[in-house]
Amino acid sequence: xxxxxxxxxxxxxxxxxxxxxxxxxxxxxxxxxxxxxxxxxxxxxxxxxxxxxxxxxxxxxxxxxxxxxxxxxxxxxxxxxxxxxxxxxxxxxxxxxxxxxxxxxxxxxxxxxxxxxxxxxxxxxxxxxxxxxxxxxxxxxxxxxxxxxxxxxxxxxxxxxxxxxxxxxxxxxxxxxxxxxxxxxxxxxxxxxxxxxxxxxxxxxxxxxxxxxxxxxxxxxxxxxxxxxxxxxxxxxxxxxx
Length: 242
Known about the structure:
The protein has 7 helices and 8 strands. The chain is α/β, with parallel strands linked by helices. The strands form 2 sheets. It has a 6-stranded parallel beta sheet, with helices on both faces. It is globular, with a radius of gyration of 18 Å.
């Protein structure tokens, strides 16, 4: 979709995925604890949802907590979980007001039971919303997601529900956490790191990558527009020749 922004026509991607990085470094620069950075990062999520919707982005998927993040200190993990608890509850009213649908992707078995219940409540409460389709990856790892999908495919083959010869790329996609979503057109990573960190490895096979030195709590509309502008100038060939 083309959108005019400050007199410039920019091709807006349908699906944007974001690796939100830099909360701890943002806080450290301000002589504050890492936990303060996570709190401010949560505000940046709310702001980015509003900005994405304003630009006409249809799908937004963010990496909030990876399967590897459990290795962080008990205090930091506990703070992040409490931020999730508040965010999941507060999001119901805000999402419905903005006609935003929220999905949670990732492995739920390892999460506290009350957080899983709040996830279910949020998804159910926003299921009929038709605006921005917002997905949050919590306790998510791309390899774990693919492993779970392969395990379920194997189980269905053994049960006679699926023939091994009938398994295609579309079949695999249908068993992933993102089965209701399109693949990301654009992947953004903040804080200057140049890796994908096990985020959506299957889905980003043909995504454009935009890396920025901006730390996540400082991510704003200007930086989102910069990412879309970068995407707009990419020649997407999907392995073909033009």
